[in-house]
Specification:
The complex is a heterotrimer of chains A (about 280), B (about 525) and C (about 325).
Chain A: H1 8-32, H2 67-103, H3 105-120, H4 123-134, H5 138-164, H6 168-176, H7 180-216, H8 228-235, H9 244-271
Helix pairs in contact in A: 1-2, 1-9, 2-3, 2-5, 2-7, 2-9, 3-5, 4-5, 5-7, 7-8, 7-9, 8-9
Chain B: E1 2-5, E2 8-11, H1 13-18, H2 29-33, E3 43-48, H3 66-72, E4 77-79, E5 85-87, E6 90-97, E7 100-105, H4 119-130, H5 138-141, E8 145-152, E9 155-160, H6 167-172, E10 197-203, E11 207-212, E12 226-231, H7 235-243, E13 249-252, H8 255-263, E14 268-271, E15 277-283, H9 293-302, H10 305-313, E16 318-319, H11 344-353, E17 360-368, H12 372-387, E18 390-397, H13 399-408, E19 414-416, H14 425-429, H15 437-441, H16 447-457, H17 462-479, E20 482-488, E21 492-496, E22 499-500, E23 517-518
Parallel strand pairs in B: 3-12, 3-13, 17-18, 17-19
Antiparallel strand pairs in B: 1-2, 4-5, 6-7, 7-9, 8-9, 10-11, 11-12, 13-21, 14-21, 15-19, 15-20, 16-20, 22-23
Helix pairs in contact in B: 9-11, 10-12, 16-17
Chain C: H1 2-29, H2 34-39, H3 46-56, H4 62-74, H5 88-124, H6 126-141, H7 144-158, H8 174-208, H9 211-219, H10 223-261, H11 266-276, H12 279-307
Classes of the chains: A mainly alpha (about 280), B alpha+beta (about 525), C mainly alpha (about 325).
Chain lengths: ~280, ~525, ~325
């Protein structure tokens, strides 16, 4: 197995393969969710904080709900929020980064400064404000996270664009009369694909962190909706009575993040992108 | 009026006070004697989960401040361990008629700054309370007070607009009836009172230090040199701090946590105290479907109160009606109450009768996000109601906006917020009267009930008053104006056994730190 | 160069203004206010509530409140906290110092850990490199609050007599204070150490391949001297700028760790202030937090500009 890691290309391919396998597991959870859960995740029972048993493979939580079911259905919710939010951030970031980097000048200045304000704004304050003002729904959480990660995406796009627009063959195309938009799409866009791919994987890992962190603080979807962050938070009180209630969601969170970290590392090796 | 029970005479309040003790130590007997002679000196460290917001008893509104004001200030009367009113700064009183009280004050009492206490301070306190500029939460409570007059240095007279059975209870409650010194400003940050402990220092989020008041008028007390409150943000850190003896005493919001902690050592003592609050489901009856009593009754029938009690509190509490057991006329959790017997099938039948044969969707059920017990119970209720075809969506909210909606009746259908302890059952039931802004906002319009509530306010005989409140509760349950699920103590207290002489008080303030001592 | 620095610093001012306006408006869009929040379930008459609002200046129009705040802020007065009635600056500074201390402790740990693993990975190659990679990936995948929670669980289960929530102020007990920062510091440091590890590794590898190094080796200088020399001058820069960036990230991540380990820092202060709607406190915190983030950003951009002359900011 060590041999596999000797050559950079092979190493990258192996990591991407592992990452994709893990991603497949996650996607299965998202797709099948409730159908593979043994119980209704919101079904309460007087059998609270029970340890693992034949009836409950991972035990129960503080109001007697099956932990395994909550983990599966909660994973579905958490992951869906993550994917959608990152997709939104990506789209917004692409548009803003391309426009800002390519057009430059005043537009660049204004857009970057606005994004700076967003970037400088404490994430949690924004989340708390949105939740308190608009209510703790899935939709609001997704929007908040999309807003938070747009500046990073935009920056990642803008970087290569800034460098590229001075390239000779771009100048040449311009001098021949090819339209700006066409140049942007045909010459510039392909160059940002690699860094974007890597950054997206990283952002997915970070987003899982943010989603679970916000839910942990009580800013996520309301109960009885199961999600890993709030499961972790609720379990803290009774940690010692039933350690599994903490360990299980913790492992799930790590597994999901790890998937994207491995993917990001593999892609970086494969596409030879270099530092972040 | 004498009802001997367990060898201790239980006196009607009026007589007990008139018999005013020369000893000045009524209520001291019980806890202290059981554990040997008190030792002087030492420091008690208490874990608190919230910082005080202000220390001036006339203006504070936050419950977190009560722990501190209860040690810094005293009032004319106070609660003893059996939740009966007894003398404090006042040694006794007379009632020339039902609307007048003349209190005789203790002599030789000094405030922490050395100033002598007299009737002028009592008048000053109540003038401040009743002044609109103070924005005092006690103003509504003492609205029945017409005037306070200084008769002489140690005598003060209260004239009320109408007889009030709750008046003495409120005077005994801290900080509502706490006396402040005249001529002293800035009590919010530099408190000066007549309490057993005086203020030393406060570092926000860190600790709050008090020292024993050598001039305290209760002979021998306090035993402790110092009391230090240390602040911990959550239950997990409180647990850890107690176990590692970083603190000597604390209280927990969840009985399971408390039970777990106490199990870890035989030297940890836990005392739940009496039940002092209920978990209610408030109902907005202004519009259908909840304006239909059958729908409300169905809701009550679908509820399995005992299961909620078992699952959420592990059985540490009782089934509830509007008034908790520790009050006059409180429900003991056992007696028969209309529509309390769980029956999902009967619930469905009632719904069908009311025109909802296929069940009903009651929309958003608001709960306080910051109370895990409330949120847990709400989820269980959601399940129970679903079994009867009643669907709700749980919506945890921040406390402040939720309360604003509740008080104005602007919530869609159902809302749960537990009431903090109040000295008198009237404060609880009057909310459901159509004359109270909250009751009106919820769509109440029951003249019979209103009359019952008003009448109960002025019954001075304890036994008759208890009957009146039981009747009110039955009426409320019969019409399902409000669903009460379980009753429980506000907190579950736990401490190390070397801290002796401490008794938890149902009024949820740590008054008995004054009788506590350390035996290490 | 100086002109660019001055320009960037100047640009932070409108951003700070923007941030403060957004915070101001956002907070007032929240339902409820301080008067209602502190009353709780106590019945207060509407008149009393209104009087309270008047006392706090909450009855004036929002823009007027903002301008009043801005005017005071520009002269250094961040107002008075609604909750404690003390100056916000006085409340903020000690908490900021606590968060800053935690950040620095965590940063130092991250530098040590990341530096060590990066060095090992670069110099030893082979299996070590593979292990470090795996380790780094794992660290990236574990959010800091998960680490913190698991740490608390571990100690609760196996070492219950060791108090882990024993924060004491530095002034009271320096050793105790540092001891209380160890566990939270580790929780924060783990994720951050990854970037430092990778950058250290990259910097060292780069050193090894420079012509300059070959010449110096030919001249007879020892490897250690070269390493020290070069690192001291150039390679350290990217590492430190990355560390700076992470510092800003640490500041943001501290709210969770502070909550779990009950450390009275700015993150916790922000959370509490929002819950009680203590507007002056919130404004103060946002201002300070944003300033720190922006200043760090400027520093990083400057460092990058020095390193890569091709990037220009116009």
């Amino acid at each position: 197995m060590i041999e596999a890691f000797r050559r950079p290309g092979q190493r990258g391919r192996t990591m991407v393969a592992i990452g994709l396998a893990m991603l497949l597991v996650l996607l299965l959870v998202v797709a099948l969710g409730p159908s593979i859960a043994p119980y209704d995740p919101t079904r309460t029972s007087p059998d609270s904080l029970a340890g693992p048993s034949a009836a409950h493979l991972l035990g129960t939580d503080s109001i007697g709900r099956d932990l395994l079911s909550r983990l599966i259905v909660g994973g579905r919710g958490t992951l869906l929020i993550t994917f959608v939010a990152v997709a939104m951030a990506l789209s917004a970031g692409l548009v803003l980064g391309l426009a800002s980097g390519y057009v430059g000048g005043k537009l660049d200045l204004v857009v970057m400064r606005v994004l700076d304000v967003v970037f400088a704004f404490p994430v949690f304050l924004l989340a708390i404000a949105v939740v308190a003002a608009l209510g703790p729904t899935v939709r609001n959480l997704v929007i908040t996270i999309a807003i938070v990660y747009t500046p990073t995406m935009a920056r990642v796009v803008r970087g290569p664009v800034l460098g590229v627009k001075r390239w000779d063959h771009v100048e040449a195309a311009r001098s021949v009369g090819v339209g700006e938009l066409s140049i942007a799409l045909r010459h510039v866009l392909p160059l940002v694909v690699s860094p974007i791919l890597v950054q997206t994987s990283l952002t997915l890992a970070n987003t899982i962190f943010t989603v679970t962190a916000l839910s942990f603080l009580g800013l996520g979807p309301p109960p009885p909706d199961p999600n890993w962050g709030s499961m972790l938070a609720d379990a803290r009180q009774f940690m010692e009575l039933a350690p599994l209630t903490v360990v299980a969601p913790a492992c799930a969170i790590v597994f999901a993040s790890l998937t994207f970290v491995v993917l990001a590392n593999g892609l970086r090796e494969l596409l030879d992108v270099g530092g972040r | 009026m004498y009802e001997p029970a367990h060898g201790v005479a239980i006196l009607a309040r009026r007589d007990a006070l008139r018999l005013a003790l020369a000893t000045g130590a009524l209520g001291l007997a019980g806890p202290a004697l059981a554990q040997g002679a008190p030792r002087r000196g030492g420091r008690l460290t208490i874990g608190a989960d919230a910082d005080p917001i202000g220390l001036d008893p006339v203006t504070i509104t936050a419950f977190s401040s009560y722990d501190f004001t209860s040690l810094l200030y005293t009032g004319l009367l106070r609660w003893n361990a059996e939740m009966k009113v007894e003398p404090d700064l006042a040694t006794g009183f007379e009632q020339p008629d039902d609307k007048t009280y003349v209190f005789r004050l203790r002599d030789g009492v000094k405030f922490h700054n050395g100033q002598a206490f007299d009737a002028g301070d009592v008048k000053h306190t109540f003038d401040r309370i009743l002044a609109p500029a103070s924005a005092s939460p006690s103003a509504t409570i003492f609205a029945s007070v017409k005037s306070v007059t200084v008769v002489d240095r140690l005598t003060v007279r209260f004239d009320l607009h109408a007889p009030s059975a709750a008046f003495l209870s409120y005077l005994a409650t801290n900080p509502t009836g706490a006396i402040v010194p005249r001529g002293v400003d800035g009590l919010n940050t530099a408190p000066v009172g007549t309490g057993p402990f005086s203020f030393v220092s406060y570092e926000p989020n860190q600790q709050f230090v008090l020292k024993g008041n050598p001039d305290y008028y209760e002979r021998g007390q306090p035993y402790l040199d110092q009391v230090v409150f240390r602040f911990f943000k959550d239950q997990a850190s409180l647990t850890s701090a107690l176990r590692s003896r970083a603190i000597d005493m604390t209280w927990f919001k969840d009985p399971k946590v408390s039970a777990q902690v106490v199990r870890t050592s035989p030297d940890l003592v836990s005392a739940p105290g009496k039940t002092t609050r209920t978990f209610p489901v408030w109902i907005n009856m202004k519009a259908p479907p909840l304006s239909d009593v059958r729908v409300r009754r169905a809701l009550s029938l679908a509820t399995d109160r005992a299961a909620c009690l078992q699952t959420v509190l592990g059985g540490s509490g009782k089934v509830a009606a509007m008034v908790p057991e520790s009050h006059v006329g409180g429900y003991d959790g056992v007696g028969e109450m209309p529509y309390y017997r769980t029956d999902a099938a009967a619930a469905r039948r009632l719904l069908a009768e009311a025109g909802h044969p296929n069940g009903i969707d009651l929309g958003d059920y608001l709960v306080v996000a910051a109370n895990p017990l409330d949120v847990a119970c709400a989820q269980i209720l959601q399940q129970q109601w679903a079994a009867a075809g009643i669907k709700v969506a749980i919506k945890p909210m921040e406390t402040a906006p939720l309360i604003a909606m509740w008080l104005k009746g602007e919530y869609p259908t159902l809302l749960s917020v537990a009431l903090s302890w109040s000295p008198d059952p009237d404060a609880i039931v009057s909310r459901i009267s159509s004359m109270h802004p909250q009751g009106k906002g919820a769509g109440m319009a029951d003249a019979t009930l209103d009359a019952m509530i008003v009448a109960a306010r002025s019954i001075l005989d304890r036994g008759k008053r208890a009957e009146a409140y039981m009747a009110i509760q039955r009426h409320v349950a019969e019409n399902a104006y409000c669903l009460d699920i379980y009753q429980y103590p506000l907190r579950w207290e736990a401490w190390w056994s070397y801290a002796k002489g401490y008794v938890p008080l149902a009024a949820n303030i740590r008054s008995f730190v004054r009788t506590a001592w350390i035996d290490k | 160069m100086m002109r660019m620095v001055a320009l960037r610093l100047l640009l932070t001012l409108p951003i700070l203004l923007g941030v403060s306006i957004v915070a101001f408006v956002l907070m007032r869009a929240l339902p409820g206010d301080f008067a209602q929040a502190s009353a709780g379930t106590t019945t207060i008459s509407p008149e009393a509530l209104d009087q309270l609002r008047r006392n706090l200046g909450l009855d004036r129009p929002v823009w007027e409140q903002y301008l009043a705040w801005l005017a005071r802020a520009l002269s250094g007065d961040l107002g008075t906290s609604f909750a404690t009635k003390r100056p916000v600056l006085g409340e903020l500074v000690p908490r900021f110092m606590v968060t800053a201390e935690l950040t620095l402790v965590a940063g130092a740990m991250a530098l040590a850990l990341g530096g060590a693993t990066g060095l090992a990975s670069a110099r030893l190659r082979g299996r070590v490199e593979w292990i470090v990679r795996g380790w780094n990936s794992l660290l990236l995948a574990v959010p800091n609050f998960v680490v913190a929670t698991l740490v608390v669980l571990l100690f609760g289960l196996y070492f219950p007599t060791i108090g882990i929530f024993n924060y004491v102020p530095f002034a009271t007990d320096p050793l105790g204070n540092l001891a209380s920062m160890v566990l939270p510091g580790i929780s924060l440091a783990l994720t951050v150490s990854v970037t430092i590890s990778e950058n250290t590794r990259a910097a060292i590898l780069e050193v090894a391949s420079q012509d300059y190094v070959m010449v110096a080796r030919a001249k007879g200088l020892s490897r250690g001297t070269i390493l020290r020399d070069y690192l001291g001058r150039n390679a350290l820069t990217p590492v430190i700028t990355v560390a700076g960036l992470q510092l800003a990230a640490l500041l943001g991540g501290s709210i969770l760790i502070e909550t779990i380990f009950t450390i009275p820092g700015m993150g916790q202060y922000l959370f509490d202030s929002v819950t009680t709607r203590d507007y002056p406190a919130i404004q103060g915190i946002v201002l300070v937090a944003a300033t720190v983030v922006l200043l760090v950003n400027v520093a990083v951009d400057i460092a990058y500009a020095r390193v890569d002359a091709r990037v220009s900011y116009d």
